[in-house]
Amino acid sequence: MQKSLFPGYTVGPDAYEDIVNVCPAYGKKVVIIGGKRALAAAKDKILKAIEGSTLEVIGVFWYGGEASVENMDMLRPQVADADMLFAVGGGKAIDTCKVLAHSTNRPFFTFPTIASTCASCTSLGIVYHPDGSLREYSFSKIPPNHIFIDTEIIANAPVRYLWAGMGDTMAKHYECTISSRNDTPAHSDAMGIALSSMCAAPILRWGKQAMADCEAHRVTEELTEIILAIIVSTGFVSNFVQVDYTTGMAHAMYNGFTILPSTEANHHLHGEVVSYGILVMLTVDKQYEERDRVMAFNKSIGLPTKLADIHARPEDLPAVTEKALAGIDVRVYPYPVTQQMLIDGVMELESIQK
Predict the structure, then answer these.
(1) Chain-centroid distance, C-alpha 242
(2) For the domain that residue 225 is a member of, what is the CATH number?
(3) Cys staple from 114: which of 34, 53, 82, 161, with CB 3.0 to 4.6 Å?
(4) For the chain, how many structural domains are there in total?
(5) What would the pLDDT profile of 98-107 be if each residue is shown by its tens digit?
(6) What is the three-state SS of 277-309?
(7) Res. 194 pLDDT band, cuts 50 70 90
(8) Residue 20 is part of which domain span?
(9) Which tens digit of pLDDT belongs to each residue from 301-318?
(10) What are residue 85's phi and psi, to 5 degrees?
């Protein structure tokens, strides 16, 4: 078991044993909200960990399948008597619980059962429409009170979540360094930007081995390092830097691709599509050497490098890029970003595929 601060986290196969040391200070009544598979993996382990303590679970609820306002409204009456919320699962389940906790002024604790995004560490929530398209970012300065990272549960989760998580994690480094390029960052921003190297270097170093370990359901040092990079390093960067540095062109492209029915129909994961957006971003930014390094890594583990890999076509690009620029992701950037610039970046990337 490893423990740390800001926000506090406990990591290891025995991480849940720390619940009774952390949570009773916030009250007694607990509501657990999560995904169906996540609850199946973690609920009994949580309940066993709090046996004999002052904590009482007064309800366990499925989050509804989408991080939507509608599902948050559905859950609001269910948490009326809770002192604290336990958010269990992946990004959308945790964001549902997180935004609900923010809006009801309750402490919340996260229990990631997959390593796919930094949702369980960051204060930022992402809200979607019921059809899976992006609705808005939910801004708050309140991260989870503590994160309980059971590496055994994550090692036994489907490897594709770790695979996609590595793509999302690398984006944090490239996005915040590009977005802040023309600025003189304040102290907190500068801290986050400096830390962001921990979102790319470990992935490129240990990512392939960590995938093999996850496929074999082994908790290893390499897998633990990648889990911490995905969940903690990225989340800390997000919590340190202002919102315009915590996102960028890779996430703008992801938001654009959410409008395509093929994205949802083919179950493309957030980080999977973001990893493709990194390549577009580095191409547009003319960081060709770094782009080729990331592309080689993507190819080594099967992350997307071309439109066909995410079931998109060149004719989709006008609508995709219009949606990409409709949000806030590139409003602070070293240069104005246009639709044609994004389209040209994608097509240049297409032209170098082998």
Answers:
(1) 17
(2) 1.20.1090.10
(3) 161
(4) 2
(5) 999 999 999 9
(6) HHHHHHHHCCCHHHHHHHHHHHHHHCCCCCHHH
(7) very high
(8) 2-155
(9) 999 999 999 999 999 999
(10) -115, 140
